[in-house]
Amino acid sequence: MRIDVTRDVFQLAQVFTIARGSRTEAQVLTVRIEDGGVTGLGECVPYARYDETLDSVTAQIEGLPADMSRMALYDLLPAGAARNAVDCALWDLEAKRSGKRVWELAGLAKPGPQITAYTLSLDSPEAMQAQAAKNAFRPLLKIKLGTPDDMPRLEAVRAGAPDARIIVDANEGWSADVYADLAPHLVRLGVQLVEQPLPAGDDEALIGMERPVPVCADESCHDRASLPHLKGKYDVVNIKLDKTGGLTEALALRDEALAQGFRVMVGCMVGSSLAMAPATLVAQGAEVVDLDGPLLLAEDRDEPLIFDAAGVHPPTAKLWG
To answer: What is residue 72's three-state secondary structure?
Structure first.
């Protein structure tokens, strides 16, 4: 078995801005695991918020033994981008060897398309209203916020897309006071979900706080070990494979979160169709799906995911799984 990791850059269709900064390209790592003439593929997006870089994640992957299994990865790598790419590549390798799809190997029902959010990046109210109007045909819009001056942005997006479902991602950018002040306006404007309003290290303030709009843990939720710390603070957990460390843990986290009474959102970093492909399996039946990474790109993989009125479709075998 041989593991190769390469860096790939995908240009974005436009500048993408969140509360922590802007970018014009998606920098990803592609993992190829070859064994007996069969190659499995996986992709990850190292994320600085979690102290990951392209170099550090590459070193983690290159330091792996050549004969590991998916389950052995739990002892070899922590939850995060490196384990995600390798885990997903091993799933793909197993599917290609067996002639079965990953969903069959995992004992899942055959997946179908899921409506996905489309993200509007943080900008001036005028620019965000124009973004919203351009994408008002989409059934679900996600707004990047996270500043003390977000009220005009909210109003502008609702004016631009009066009929769309709206969710909000504050990316840890609000204080407890800002969130409490905005909450009734979120209700008035029909916002259906708020992601990570407070910094992960300060989210104790959510305990006992009235939550008229469901609050979703993103930066506060990585894998199953996160769940005990989320009780009483969050209503929903956002499952991202780059946080869980792959499809194996993502499926386990989904089942455990549901068993503990949380609702489930499935999200992504800004990556290509290869990164989204495994997540489409986790997204089956999720309350909110946010797998729009490829829609934000100016270029994608050779065999991209299909997005249409039915939503994001599961991958073809040529892409993954």
So the answer is: coil
